[in-house]
Amino acid sequence: MVKWTELERSTVKAIWEKVDIDEIGPQIWARVLIVYPWTERYFGSFGDLFTITAILKNDKVAAHGKVVLKALDKAVNNMDNMKRTYADLSQLHFQKLEVDPDSFRLLADCITITIACKLKSALSPQSQAIWQKFLYAVVDAMSSQYR
Amino acid sequence: MVEWTDAERKAIASLWGKIDVAEIGPQALARLLIVYPWAQRYFKAFGDLSTNAAIMGNPKVAQHGKTVMGGLENAVKNLDNIKQTYAKLSVMHSEKLHVDPDNFRVLAECISLCVAAKFGPSVFTADAQEAWQKFLAVVVSALGRQYH
Fold first, then answer.
1. Which residue of A has its CA nearest to B128?
2. Judging by beta carbons within 10 Å of its beta carbon (0-12, 13-18, 19+), is residue B44 exposed, middle or buried?
């Protein structure tokens, strides 16, 4: 089980408090699809993803970004229990959605970049270290049901 | 050979034009040493790296950050020839400095984060991020190329 210090818990919560899911979620999801375009393979039903402009304007992309960030909220509130918290979601992504687990790492990268854009120097090196530890734990939990 | 679209070339040149090497370089290297502390093993000669504050105030870290970031200029000016541009540096990091090439990848991550934090979402747009991270991925690959 991942061990968290008091400082790490409060830092993760402090960062998360500054994240507006409705604002940041769509940005993060658009970045994933633009920076790592092969991830578009999972979103055939989302309509036009052919250009950067299309992705940035796509309502389904925006909505899905919010869904994913809402799920991250669960991790913030269950830091001592992430594997169990995400067991069902991990199963779903493995067996039904057949998502390559490396995608979770790419998503984590875009989450961190988008938050850095928003928080700027407030995402200090120490905060970055803690936030990335948190996201690695999430990625690990999301990969846990893959065999 | 890596293919660059005109949009990507423009995005990279535009970002590079805005980046102050002396500002971003030190920040990126300090973040590397703080977020990935095992990287400190390569910098024993740099003096005090025992705390985050020490790392962030360390003049050798700052100087080396500037050097490394400045080295990206060669890649920006030789987008179609990055592999060859960095061949000697790659050999040096492998044979003389014995640096694990995974460090290039995490340093690139720290650089991207510093650039994002400096410029925010209106300059470091999704397409700017795509071009920049592709650029750094090519640099990382070139630096690891001469390892055997």
1. A35
2. exposed
- Which pair of tokens denotes residue B75? 């890649």
The H helix count followed by the E strand count for chain A is 8, 0
When scoring A115, A117, A135 by the number of chain B Cβ atoms within 10 A, the one with the most, hence best to mutate, is: A117
Q: Which strand (E) or helix (H) includes residue B25?
A: helix B21-35
Provide the domain limits for residue A40. Answer: 6-143
What amino acid is encoded at A113 in this protein?
Answer: I
Over the stretch B24-40, which tens digit does the pLDDT of each residue have? Answer: 999 999 999 999 999 99
Q: Which of residues 21-40 of A touch B (CB under 8 A)?
A: 27, 30-31, 34-35
All structural domains of chain B, each given as residue ranges with its CATH number in brackets, are 6-144 (1.10.490.10)
| Number of C-beta neighbours around residue B3 at 10 A | 6
Question: Is the predicted ipTM greater than 0.85, yes or no?
Answer: no
Torsion angles phi and psi, residue B140, rounded to 5: -60, -45
In this predicted structure, what is the pLDDT of residue A66?
Answer: 96
**How many independent structural domains does chain A possess?**
1
Rg (chain A; Cα; Å)? 15
Q: Is residue A12 part of a domain?
A: yes
The pLDDT tens digits of the residues spanning B73-116 come to: 999 999 999 999 999 999 999 999 999 999 999 999 999 999 99
C-alpha dist (Å) from residue A125 to B36, B45, B53: 10, 22, 10
Decide if A1 is inside a domain: no
Q: Per-residue pLDDT tens for A95-110?
A: 999 999 999 999 999 9
